[in-house]
Amino acid sequence: MVKNVKEQLEILADLQQIEISIARLEESLAKVDESLARLDRELSQFSEAVDKARADVESAREKYDEDEKKVRSITDQIAKNEARLGTIKTNKEYQAALKEIDDLKRERSKLEEAMLGTLEKIEAAEKILAEKQEFAEQQRAEIEEQKNDIAGAAAGKKKELERLRRKARAIADKVEPRLYNTYTRIKRNGGGVAVAAVENAVCQVCHMNIPPQAFNELLRLDEIKICPNCQRIIYPRQSD
Ligand SMILES: [Zn+2]
After folding, report:
1. pTM of the model
2. ∠ CA(148), CA(151), CA(37), 5° rounding?
3. Exposure pattern of 5-24 as b/e (b: 16+ CB <10 Å)?
4. Residue 206 C-alpha to ligand 1 middle, in angstroms?
5. 204 C-alpha vs ligand 1 centroid, how far in Å?
6. Which residues hold their Cβ within 5 A of ligand 1, which is an ion?
7. How far is the CA of 88 from the centre of ligand 1 (A)?
8. Given pLDDT bands bounded at 50, 70 and 90, which one contains residue 238?
9. CATH number of 5-175
């Protein structure tokens, strides 16, 4: 344990520097997570667009198949009715049967016309699906590349963060426990900054003058001093 005030102050200043770097890295890594989540959302939007286009194709195909089935059944019906014509005895019944066949044929024509329209719809929907798929493929490749870049850069930052955390713990162990408690309390109250350099009798955090008497005491470095204005631990530093 280092007892010397000057050394203690140097250690605290060092610790603070590292903790500031740690906070910056943590902030930047949080942004990385946000960016990755945003890219994932983009990816799923493209997939959803493809799914929707595929559903449009499928529903048009189903409609076509349904109509085709109806046409087949009507055609069967027409054939049956036509086969029955020869067995009909009265003219009236014959006319009625012919009319029924005509009606069925008209109905079938309508369905066949609708099927042509549906075929066009299927083609258009397939075209849209292919476009969406191609676009989604392109975007997916680009987004995956972006994600890899981001994750790669983040991996370096995570390693650096681990290194700094270890270093901070090792440094913190060198600080007198009571002073360390003071340091953490001031840090909490001081927006993360517990230690302030004093240059030319000016606190470099709050930029207020340290009174001459207090400044002279500070220069003696025989005890821990607090900035009378911002209440941070102060240490003298030569201005550049
Ligand atoms: Zn101050």
Report:
1. 0.67
2. 90
3. beebbebbbbbbebbeebee
4. 4
5. 7
6. 203, 205-206, 227, 229-230
7. 114
8. confident
9. 1.10.287.1490
H/E segment holding residue 169: helix 91-172
Compute, in angstroms, the gap from residue 202 CA to the centroid of ligand 1.
8
- CA-wise closest residue to 119 among 161, 68, 179, 163: 68
Look over the chain and give the mean of its residue pLDDT values, rounded to a whole number. Answer: 94
CA angle 133, 138, 140 (to 5 degrees): 90
Q: How far is the CA of 182 from the centre of ligand 1 (A)?
A: 16
Average pLDDT over residues 130-153: 95
Instruction: For Cα atoms 130, 135, 141, give the angle at the middle one, nearest 5 degrees.
Output: 125
Spacing, Cα 240 to ligand 1 middle (Å): 19
Q: How far is the CA of 172 from the centre of ligand 1 (A)?
A: 23
- Each domain of the chain, given as residue ranges in start order, spans 5-175, 179-236
**Cα 136 from chain centre:** 17
Assess contact for 114 and 64: CB atoms under 8 A: no
- For residue 130 the two structure tokens come to 């292919």
Residue the block writes with tokens 């959302």: 41
Q: Which two tokens stand for residue 25?
A: 């890295």
**Residue appearing with tokens 């109806």:** 70
CA of 3 to the centre of ligand 1 (A): 24
